[in-house]
Design brief:
Largest sheet: 6 strands, parallel
Radius of gyration: 20 Å
CATH superfamily of the largest domain: Response regulator
Helix content: 25-40%
Order of helices and strands: EEEHEHEHEEHEHEHEHEEHEEHH
CATH architecture of the largest domain: 3-Layer(aba) Sandwich
CATH topology of the largest domain: Rossmann fold
Low-confidence stretches: 1-40
Distance between the termini: 29 Å
Number of strands: 14
Strand order of the largest sheet: 4-3-5-6-7-13
Mean pLDDT: 88
């Protein structure tokens, strides 16, 4: 199996997608169905995580990778929305349908798809499956698309520490799971290494994804209001769609928010709040999706653990906000921190 590192952050493309219904979940593509299993010229399939298309974050980054593949390869890909309260069996059925319809690769966008990918992949050995944010599957036709989220979050911590005026900053995680612990750990370490005496207030919205931790802007807004009441003036959210509520609260209270996964300063749905989005921790889900599709098209499918890190450009910070970009002191500190992470002199914790 090929074990590869991800390269630079892929460009973001956009497409207007028609919405049609499928037998398991709703699809946002104009692709026609086929049971031939022949994927030539058809494209890839995304099975979205909780929050679905339009989260301005994790799922939309995956969509951008799919759109880029469609534009460059002439594909007609498809994307399927999750359903409330669905089981692993429902996810497995969805992936099996997509494989039967001839899509290749078939990608589960989020660690929740790991059990389903593990079950379905052996049934379709000629189809490449991808799962984002899980590295527990070992199979000849599965790519585990993972990231060093802690490294990008460390840089967010440096940014927060050098921006706060109250010496109180916040972290809001969507769901209390190991993946989001990586975001929190890196952020806290970045703050602590940069400025002594800064308090980091941490909060998780829910214990499980089914409770809406990644899909409830109202929960994010309420949590942010609580941290703001405790004097936090910079809040970093790793909470999917719920992060929109954090950004809304930051804008209403004239403090800083740090976005996640996509450059949220540039997101149309967040445009009215963008002046409060200092930066975003970028996670190249778009690149992961596009590169897996390209590897399949080239006849050399990626498999095994495909890890994106700071050195390869797979994680980093957005510099769209001029306030962030033009802060010379902050940029110098970030440059030093990046160099330390890349040369190993700074070892970022994951928990």
């Amino acid at each position: 199996m090929r074990r590869l590192s991800r390269i630079a952050v892929a460009g973001i493309a956009s497409a207007t997608l028609a919405v049609i219904a499928t037998g398991c979940g709703s699809s946002s593509s104009s692709s026609s169905s086929s049971s031939s299993g022949d994927s030539a010229g058809k494209g890839l399939a995304l099975a979205y995580d909780i929050g679905g298309k339009g989260d301005q974050s994790f799922n939309d980054a995956a969509t951008a990778g799919m759109d880029k593949a469609d534009a460059e390869f002439g594909y007609k890909s498809t994307a399927v929305e999750p359903q409330d309260g669905e089981s692993d069996a429902d996810k497995a059925q969805r992936l099996e349908q997509l494989a039967k319809q001839g899509y290749n690769p078939v990608i589960g966008v989020g660690f929740a798809y790991a059990p389903a990918v593990k079950e379905v992949a052996p049934k379709f050995p000629k189809v490449t499956f991808g799962v984002v944010d899980d590295e527990q599957i070992t199979a000849d036709n599965v790519a585990d698309l993972v990231f060093t989220e802690e490294q990008g979050s460390y840089l967010a911590g440096v940014t927060a520490a050098l921006t706060t005026k109250t010496n109180v900053v916040g972290f809001i995680g969507g769901v209390d799971v190991p993946l989001i612990h990586k975001f929190e750990a890196g952020f806290k370490q970045g703050v602590e290494d940069t400025k002594k005496g800064v308090t980091v207030k941490s909060q998780y919205l829910t214990e499980t994804a089914q409770e809406g931790g990644f899909s409830s802007p109202d929960k994010g807004e309420s949590a942010a209001e609580g941290q703001i009441d405790s004097k936090a003036d910079v809040i970093y959210a790793a909470a999917g769609l719920s992060g929109q509520g954090v950004i809304k609260a930051a804008a209403a209270n004239k403090i800083w928010a740090i976005g996640v996964d996509s450059d949220q300063y540039k997101q149309d749905a967040l445009a009215k709040y963008k002046d409060s989005i200092l930066t975003s921790v970028l996670k190249d889900v778009a690149g992961a999706v596009f590169n897996l599709a390209k590897s399949v098209k080239d006849g050399k499918p990626e498999t095994g653990v495909v890890r994106a890190d700071l050195a390869s450009g797979g994680v980093g910070l957005a510099d769209s906000n001029p306030v962030f970009k033009d802060n010379a002191t902050l940029q110098e500190a970030l440059k030093k921190a990046e160099a330390g992470i890349k040369d190993g002199s700074i070892k970022v914790k994951t928990s």
